[in-house]
Design brief:
Number of strands: 10
Number of domains: 1
Order of helices and strands: HHHEEEHEHHEHEHEHEHEHEHH
Bound molecules: ligand LARABZUK
GO molecular function: indole-3-glycerol-phosphate synthase activity; phosphoribosylanthranilate isomerase activity
Distance between the termini: 39 Å
Oligomer: single chain
Enzyme class: lyase
CATH architecture: Alpha-Beta Barrel
InterPro entries: Aldolase_TIM, Indole-3-glycerol_P_synth, Indole-3-glycerol_P_synth_dom, Indole-3-GlycerolPSynthase_CS, RibuloseP-bd_barrel
Keywords: Amino-acid biosynthesis, Aromatic amino acid biosynthesis, Decarboxylase, Lyase, Tryptophan biosynthesis
Strand content: 15-25%
Family: Belongs to the TrpC family.
CATH superfamily: Aldolase class I
């Protein structure tokens, strides 16, 4: 299963990263970075309307290379200037060709909150996210025990990071709600066979209380997809491939949001 490979690769990478910057040094860097108010992100996504998270993603396990030409900062600025509510930056290097330095540069140059999109399996990655200027981190229920989920959720809060807790099915959704998630992402991509269905979000939307922001992730390509999600009272949509492959990103955002 791809998630097992991603977790194993992330753990190998972390060992090397901690040899060059120790946990203590990373904690000091995080402490020296201004702390944000996590509630601001939750309020933004709970406000009326549908809110777009534009993703900066060069490649993925399901699609391979998505953007050979990858001017990540220009892409992020384009998103920022044309109506996204947040920007997701893939920082996983082995399968997504991401980099934490992309996030650092982007966060320093845009006005909207930036999400660290990675496979968090260690508290080190949360300090790293804070130090790089992220406002939001992703915690994926499928790769964490209840104890890890709670510890990372609490630590993220303490660091002033908002948390997008990702679930794929009813069981994971229950665990996300139990931990106190204020923003839940439901992935429409089946990570076993990479098939995508918006029905996953539609089915799980009903199980999430109205005071918890609900973000539909993956496989959203056009205005019709967004309209269906709007009809089901989804608060946010996370879109990668459709934006990354659009030659005119401003135009694509306008089309998606129907403005
Ligand atoms: O995209 C993948 O192939 C993938 C494989 C395994 C784990 C996660 C994966 N994607 C991460 C994401 O959640 C997406 O990048 C994000 O939801 C945007 O999806 P899309 O709009 O379909 O590019």
């Amino acid at each position: 299963m791809i998630l097992d490979d991603l977790v194993a690769a992330t753990k190998r990478r972390l060992k090397k990263e901690q040899q060059s910057v120790s946990l203590r040094q990373m904690q000091a860097q995080a402490a020296a970075t201004p702390t944000k108010d996590p509630q601001r992100v939750y309020d933004r996504f709970n406000a009326p309307g549908i809110h777009l998270i534009g993703e900066v993603k060069k490649a993925s396990p399901s699609k391979g290379l998505i953007a050979a030409d990858f001017p990540y900062l220009a892409i992020a600025k384009d998103y920022d200037q044309h109506g996204v509510s947040a920007i997701s930056v893939l920082t996983e290097p082995d399968y997504f060709q991401g980099n934490i330095n992309y996030l650092k540069t982007i966060a320093a140059n845009v006005s909207v909150p930036v999400l660290r999109k990675d496979f968090v399996v260690d508290s080190y990655m949360l300090y790293q996210a804070k130090a790089a200027g992220a406002s939001i981190v992703l915690l994926i229920v499928a790769i964490l025990s209840d104890d890890q989920l709670k510890r990372y959720f609490d630590l993220a809060n303490k660091l002033g990071l908002s948390v997008l807790v990702e679930a794929h099915d009813e069981g994971e959704l229950k665990r996300a709600l139990n931990v106190g998630a204020k923003m839940i992402g439901v992935n429409n991509r089946n990570l076993k066979d990479f098939t995508v269905s918006l029905d996953n979000s539609i089915r799980l939307r009903k199980l999430v209380p109205d005071n918890v922001a609900f973000v539909a992730e993956s496989g959203i390509h056009n205005r019709d997809d967004v309209k269906i999600l709007e009809q089901h009272h989804v608060n946010g949509i996370l879109i990668g491939e459709a934006l990354m492959t659009a030659p005119d990103k401003a135009d694509k955002i306008t089309q998606l949001l129907g403005v």
